[in-house]
């Protein structure tokens, strides 16, 4: 097995909690470099995780000939320019969600990576949950009849203050949007994977409780091309609700929380509960799949096209809410 050598661009919360250790703990992968503008915080991060090469400029990391792939975990406004640099340097690109600020930027990322013949993936890691894969199998077997509707509620309890790490999520120029882009995008990606294209979006995106430039609350009503409907609520500053349900003509599938390990199956008047725990580190299956895509010259399971389709739905929601 050829070892995939990674550079990590951005050493914030998601990198510290999951991404760095996911790379280090996945066989056949090595985290050899990290980048952060603040040199003191960079040293603290790299010392804690024994990362040998340290860069305060992303372009310098891109020039490291030993780096095979980069994980981009920076504010969304940086995703396209850093993907451009990576592709030009022949590095494969795995980028945090949402993929980019808008649909046009997603398209350019896809184009530059295709031209450079490097893989492009987006970090919608929930797609690798065994629970979600079980839901997909049940739907394919018609276990709850014809699906009628899907619903999700998602939030983050974080109330971000100016100067705090991650506050960029509330600044439109850095994030492109608020709760919908940050936490809602994960659920939209799941919706699209399970049920296909979304034909119509009705939405309210508003700020209720916080003094942010972006929405702290979004509510979407969706019509899928297959005929079924969907609803999505997403919030900043709520106490982490995480509800997911699919209603069919013969029953329901429920995961509350979706990030948990229990799938409730209701059909023909009976209920069963299956236990399907996710990986201890949610990002590790994502890293393993992307590395395998590099080795076998294939598309990753969550590729740039999927990231772009997710951004299209969010763009339509923002347009409708104006």
Automatic annotation (TrEMBL):
Residue ranges occupied by any Gfo/Idh/MocA-like oxidoreductase N-terminal domain in the UniProt entry: 4-124
Instruction: Report the SUPFAM superfamilies cross-referenced here.
Output: Glyceraldehyde-3-phosphate dehydrogenase-like, C-terminal domain, NAD(P)-binding Rossmann-fold domains
Which GO terms of the molecular function aspect are on file? 1,5-anhydro-D-fructose reductase (1,5-anhydro-D-mannitol-forming) activity; nucleotide binding
Give the residue spans that cross the bilayer: none
Please report the stretch or stretches of sequence annotated as the GFO/IDH/MocA-like oxidoreductase domain. Answer: 133-254
What the entry lists under Pfam families is as follows:
GFO_IDH_MocA, GFO_IDH_MocA_C3
The record's listing under InterPro entries reads: Gfo/Idh/MocA-like_OxRdtase_N, Gfo/Idh/MocA_Oxidoreductase, GFO_IDH_MocA-like_dom, NAD(P)-bd_dom_sf
Q: Which organism is it from?
A: Novipirellula galeiformis
Q: What is its EC number?
A: 1.1.1.292
Q: What is this protein called?
A: 1,5-anhydro-D-fructose reductase
Keywords (A to Z) from UniProt: Oxidoreductase
Report the PANTHER family cross-referenced here: D-GLUCOSIDE 3-DEHYDROGENASE, UDP-N-ACETYL-2-AMINO-2-DEOXY-D-GLUCURONATE OXIDASE
């Amino acid at each position: 097995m050829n070892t995939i050598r990674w550079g990590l661009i951005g050493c914030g919360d998601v990198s510290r909690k999951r991404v760095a250790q996911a790379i280090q703990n996945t066989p056949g992968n090595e985290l050899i470099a990290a980048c952060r503008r603040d040199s003191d915080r960079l040293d603290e991060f790299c010392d804690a995780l024994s990362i040998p090469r340290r860069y305060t400029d992303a372009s310098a990391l891109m020039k490291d000939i030993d780096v095979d792939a980069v994980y981009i975990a920076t504010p969304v406004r940086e995703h396209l320019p850093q993907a451009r640099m990576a592709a030009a340097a022949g590095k494969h690109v795995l980028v945090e969600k949402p993929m980019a600020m808008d649909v046009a930027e997603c398209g350019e990322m896809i184009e530059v990576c295709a031209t450079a013949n490097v893989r492009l993936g987006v970090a919608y890691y929930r797609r690798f949950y065994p629970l979600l894969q079980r839901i997909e199998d049940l739907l394919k077997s018609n276990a709850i009849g014809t699906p009628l509707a899907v619903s999700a509620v998602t939030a983050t309890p974080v109330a971000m203050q100016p100067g705090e790490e991650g506050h960029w999520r509330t600044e439109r120029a850095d994030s492109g949007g608020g709760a919908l882009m940050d936490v809602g995008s994960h659920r939209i990606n799941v919706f699209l994977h399970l049920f296909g294209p979304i034909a119509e979006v009705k939405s309210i995106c508003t700020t209720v409780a916080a003094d942010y430039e972006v929405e702290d609350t979004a509510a979407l009503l969706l019509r899928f091309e297959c005929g079924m409907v969907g609803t999505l609520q997403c919030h900043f500053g709520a106490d982490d609700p995480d509800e997911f349900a699919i209603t069919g003509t013969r029953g329901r599938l429920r995961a509350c929380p979706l990030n948990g390990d229990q799938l409730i199956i209701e059909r023909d008047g009976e209920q069963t509960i299956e236990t399907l725990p996710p990986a201890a580190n949610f990002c590790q299956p994502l890293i393993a799949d992307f590395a395998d895509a590099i080795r076998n010259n294939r598309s990753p399971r969550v590729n740039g096209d999927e990231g772009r389709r997710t951004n299209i739905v969010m763009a339509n929601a923002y347009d409708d809410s104006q």
